[in-house]
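Field: COMPLEX_INPUT
Field: COMPONENT_COUNT = two
Field: RESIDUE_TOTAL = 454
Field: MODE = joint
Values follow.
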Amino acid sequence: MFDWLFMDEWFPKFDWRWDYTWEILPRLIEATGNTLIAAAAGYLIALVLGLVFALAQRSQSRVLTFVVREFVEFVRSTPLLLQIFFIFYVGPQFGITLSPWVSGMIAIGLHYSCYLSEVYRGGLDSVPKGQWEAAIALNMTTAQTYKRLIIPQAIPPAIPGLGNYLIGIFKDTPMLSVIGVAELIHTANAIGSETWRYLEAYTMVGVIFLALSLPAAGLIRAFEGFVRRRLGM
Amino acid sequence: MSFFEFMSLYWPRLMSGTGVTAAQFLLGAVLTVGLALVFGLMKMSSNRAIKGFAVVYIEIFRGTSLLVQLYWIFFVLPLFGITLEKFTAGWVAIGLNAGAYGAELVRGGIMSVPKGQWEAATAINMSAARRMRRIILPQALVNMLPAWGNLMVEILKGTALVSLISVTDLMFEAKQINASTYLSAQIFGTALVIYYILARFLLTPFMRWLEGFMARKLGRA
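Field: COMPLEX_OUTPUT
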């Protein structure tokens, strides 16, 4: 029906082949699995490390606060791609060889933990001061106060920010292809160099990203509403 | 080889790479601002077709990775008869990507202008275009500038990706020097510091200054 769209005179080299698309699709779907695993693992690291960085910036020690603050700024102001190269290549220079997966997860986890620490910081700052005073009145230790009072109240307002960075991580996983993690773009590159056909592979990668990130954004919005209702906000 | 010798040998290449990075950033940033304004306004249009077009653009470029878009523009677009040179493909991809994020900032900024301002402009018989240009946009600009500061840093960081289509930017030079010397910590470390200086000590102060300047222009400082 749409044959007229693909007339040779219009697009000299444009010839989308569906049979070829179906042929490469299984490989791309397998790579999608790797992409999702990479995003999930990176996100878990970032969630934990981000909270550590956020809490460290609230510590009594001026030195610790300063060092963590500057480190977070440094990581946030420099490209993730360069950080991936740095972590992957610098290790072997000192005798520590990390696999592409491990160094990729460290790089992406570290990069996003710095973003997440800002989100956590906003959440922690939003907890009213009276909560701290009440905890002191009840003779709770600082650790107890954080664990039982402050963090549970700091997380819900931070959820939209945390969720957006999950999608952000997902969209940054293609950078791991440069050190050989077999995620979507890496697979598309391989397919392209085998057959000299880039059209289908790259287009399908784009479609897969859209098909996953758009519903994810909707889910996060829904989850945010759910958490708010559960907490009676 | 001492670090000093190493640097004196490779410093010129790093600097030429930094120049390309700066050029990519400036061109990408200009395109971003233009696209953000056009699509931000289009998304607020009451015409469904115009609004739909803007939504499709924004969702496509925000929903996929910059790297995917860059490869698509560089490798696939030629099949449609549009061949971009790699340098051009680089900043066009960056601009298209960041423009989608910027469009949302523009829309948010415009919506943050109080309703009374719209009504007052209408009451003194301003046309819609004039109201937007003289009353709404200047105030929206001041409101959204802090967010633009972050986006500008993201654009600068995004330029590192153009090295993957062999644009000889700072990232590319660092990679090349690493491949021939294996002094990874030195070269990648230096490149990280250069990016940091560009972002933290040039770009961010400039955006802060711009915020203050615009606020003063509006008599808000």
